[in-house]
Amino acid sequence: MIDEISMKIHADKLIRMALAEDVTGEDVSTASVLPAYARGTADLLAKQNGVVAGLPVFARAFQLLDEAVEVKCFAADGDRVQEGQLLATVTGDMRAILTAERTALNFLQRMSGIATETARMCALLEGSGLRLVDTRKTTPNMRLFEKYAVRMGGGGNHRYNLSDAVLLKDNHIGAAGGVRQAVEAAKRHAPFTMKIEVEAETLAQVAEAVEAGADIIMLDNMSDEDMKKAVKLIAGRALVEISGNVTEENIARLRAVGADVVSSGALTHSAGILDVSLKHLRPLEGN
Q1: Helix 12-22 vs helix 55-63: angle between axes, to the nearest 10 degrees?
Q2: Is 260 a catalytic residue?
Q3: CATH number, domain containing residue 128
Q4: Would 7 disulfide with which of 11, 26, 28, 260, CB 3.0-4.6 Å?
């Protein structure tokens, strides 16, 4: 989760990078109309129905420019919101509000879009016992935020990065000379606390992965019939993950396979945005 500590350790530098991308010298437009401090407030509004995610990141974008900016939220990450709903107010130096506006909205729209898509796909699996997780197919430098958004939509996270777990894919297996050789090499090298997952494209590879002692077996782009055969072959000796071009349009058919987890890159690489807008910026009396 993005809490106060992880925000300062990891998120702040990424938000600063996004702000720096938008301002290389000065915000010429804002400096033109506001040469000095002026206090004001603006409203954050939902323009679509969906699941909101990223409100702490939205707020932090303003506060990195001016710690005195106050963001008062009327919704929480993971909430379902409705078109026209007031999500938050942003109050403080209007120069900071105007300069950070687009960066803050970009984060919030992207993260909320992912949470909304995740919630839709989770609903299609409800009651099946099949858990939906993401992949590493994330936008560069946005993984922290995108994987957080998946959780806010009701999904789970696969490994965060290459240091989290062993996942032996087709090229690893090819480089090692086979499934058994790859698993044996991983067991020799990786810490004993780390799980080993094997990507299998055929039933023969499934059988080899089971015999080699893999903890998780990923059924990659298999037919429904072969996936059901694979689950019977594994017989509870490893967790079973389904992967390969899983989208909102086809995920429901996987309910009956009998697997434990389904991973979908579409959650992060193909989700749209949730349209939100910062409107009605107005000066406050007593500036």
Answers
A1: 60
A2: no
A3: 3.20.20.70
A4: 11
The three-class DSSP label of residue 212 is helix
Reply yes or no on whether the pLDDT at 6 is more than 90: no
Number of domains in the chain: 2
Tell me the pLDDT band of 2, cut-offs 50, 70 and 90.
low
Per the residue annotation, which of 102, 120, 180, 187 is the catalytic one? 102
Are residues 68 and 175 located together in one domain of the fold? no
Q: Catalytic pick from 47, 131, 136, 137?
A: 137
Quick one: 167 and 69 in the same domain? Answer: no
242 phi/psi in degrees, rounded to 5? -105, 135
Q: According to the model, what pLDDT value does residue 7 have?
A: 73
* Reported confidence tier of residue 72, pLDDT bands at 50, 70, 90: very high
Q: Which two tokens stand for residue 252?
A: 């429901």
Q: What is the mean pLDDT of the chain?
A: 96
The one catalytic residue in 136, 169, 195, 237 is: 169
Taking a C-beta distance cutoff of 8 angstroms, is the pair 115, 242 a contact? no
What would the pLDDT profile of 25-54 be if each residue is shown by its tens digit?
999 999 999 999 999 999 999 999 999 999
47 catalytic residue (yes or no): no
Q: How confident is the model at residue 199 (pLDDT cuts 50, 70, 90)?
A: very high
Catalytic residue chosen out of the listed positions 77, 93, 220, 226: 220
Catalytic status, residue 199? yes
Whether the predicted pLDDT of 286 surpasses 80: no
Distance CA 110, CA 145 (A): 9
- Token representation of residue 185: 């090499």
